[in-house]
Amino acid sequence: MIFAGNFKTNHTRQSTALYIKELTQKTKAKKEEDRIILFPPLTAIDDYESDFTIGVQNAYHIQNGAYTGEIGLEQLDEFGIKTILIGHSERREHLGESQELLTQKFNFFKEEAFEIIYCIGEPLEVRKKGFEAVMKYLLAQFDGIDIAYDKLIIAYEPIWAIGTGRSATVEEISSTHRALKNVIKETALLYGGSAKLSNIKEILSIAGVDGVLVGSASLDADGFSKMVLA
Ligand code: 13P
Prior knowledge:
This protein is an alpha/beta fold. Helices cover about 35% and strands about 15% of the residues. Strands 3-2-1-8-7-6-5-4 form an 8-stranded parallel sheet. Helix 1 (about 15-25) links the parallel strand 1 and strand 2. Helix 1 (about 15-25) packs parallel to helix 9.
C-alpha cells in the first residue's frame, strides 16, 4: 500500500525535520511493501535521512528561468527530488491550472523520468448528477495525460470530500475505482479525501484502492503512523 501525506501549506522546515524523525521511529514495524511518500511545503525540502520518498506539491515545467515565484528542475535536482504531485484540485481551482498547463507539466516531468502522482476529482455538483456525469468529468482530466506512463500513480480525490471530514462512502469509492481501473489498468490508484484513522482500514480494504493520499490526518506524525500501521 502507498501512504502519501500532502502537507499543503502546513509545517515548516523545522517541524518537518522533527516530523520525519518521529514518523521514522513510529513506522519501524510497517510492512516492507508499504511505501510512505511525503509532500512537505517547498521551504521544507531538504536531504532528509529516511526511507520515505520526499516529493514536491508543485514545480514549474522548466529547467530554470524567469518564472517569478516558481521553482524548476534545477532547484529540485539540488535535493534529488524525483517525485511530484500534479493536478491537485486546489491548484486547478485556486491557482487556475488548466488541463493544458497540467499536460505541459506532466510531459515535462515525464520526460525527466519523475514519479508523478496525478490527481483527479469531481466537484459536488457533478457527483449529484450521477455516476455517468462523474466518470465523464474524471476521464476528461486525463486529456493529454499519458496514463500508460510507468512511473505514474493516480489519486482519485473527490473535491467535496477534501478537508470536509466526510470521506466518500465505500460504495462511491468502490464503483469509481472500479471504473477508473478499467481505463488505467495496472496503474496504482490512491483514494484521497478525509482519509483518517477511523476509516483507513475500510478504505484500504476496497478493491481497486492501492493506497491513500492524506491531507489533514497526515499532519501529525503520530496519527499518520497509526494509519500506516492500521
Ligand atoms: P484531506 O485528507 O484533508 O481531506 O485532504 C486530502 C487531500 O487533498 C490530499 O491531497
